[in-house]
Amino acid sequence: MAAQHWRRLAASPFAELISRGLAALVAGYLLAFGATAFLSVYLPLPRPDRVVVASLLCFAVWVGAAVYSFAARRPLRVWVVLVTLAGVFCLAAWLPTDWRMRP
Asked: Which of 7, 21, 37, 57 fits a disulfide with 93 by CB distance 3.0 to 4.6 angstroms?
């Protein structure tokens, strides 16, 4: 009986809205952080300018992630895309420091 209640609740539009909202906040923040780290490493500018430009662009990335989270067809796809992109950006920003090749 309880399992049927949870399945019905998980399939409700309210649960979908909550999932999209959390994806916009949490996964969007992770994506903005990853994009900021990536751009801070790879932009072809002096270091202070790279950090400032990357920090300013992170707001646009976060807004884009929030718009995407409510525009996509399925909430699961939103989570997968945003977390995967955030992971790729963070990994790409971290690798040069591990290889001692930071630009």
From this structure: 37
55 touches 36 (CB < 8 A) = yes
DSSP 8-state code for residue 12: S
Q: Over the stretch 6-39, which tens digit does the pLDDT of each residue have?
A: 566 566 788 889 999 999 999 999 999 999 999 9
Full-model pTM: 0.83
Residue 103 lies in a domain: no
Q: What is the DSSP string of 38-103?
A: HHHHHSSS-HHHHHHHHHHHHHHHHHHHHHHHHHSS-HHHHHHHHHHHHHHHHHHHHHHHHTT---
Residue 10, C-beta contacts closer than 8 angstroms, at least 6 positions apart: none
Question: Using CA of residue 50, residue 53, residue 58, residue 60, what is the dihedral sign?
Answer: negative
